[in-house]
Amino acid sequence: MEGVINTIGRRKTAVARVYMKVGSGNIVVNGKDYKEYFTTAPLQYIVRQAFETIDAMGKFDVKANLDGGGVTGQAQALRMAIARALCEVNSEDRPALKAKGLLRRDARMVERKKPGQKKARKRFQFSKR
Description:
The chain is α+β, with helices and mostly antiparallel strands. It has a single domain, classed as Ribosomal Protein S5, domain 2, CATH 3.30.230. It is built from four helices and five strands, in the order ββββααβαα. α2 (41-53) runs parallel beside α3.
């Protein structure tokens, strides 16, 4: 691997652009350490999941730009982008990452609100008389 690998990950409306290179394991998200950006343990685990799957913790430096969505969607978008970058580094890691479902784009999006209704499916109360 030479230089920096650039990948993208998406989830709901969140987009993660990742720049990964060989290093000491620093993960920087929007200029902050990932533990500062994602304050809860489950979200921090989601971010590390791709590295832990292939035992690559501490081998790569990641710089990520996150945009849109909420914290959970951003963490999952980042996980996908990191998994894609790891596949570019070493294609033999692909089956392990694929088995965990880290390379699959989760296509579920918020359903749009319809006119004449309270929300996407919830309706206003019906009155017979």
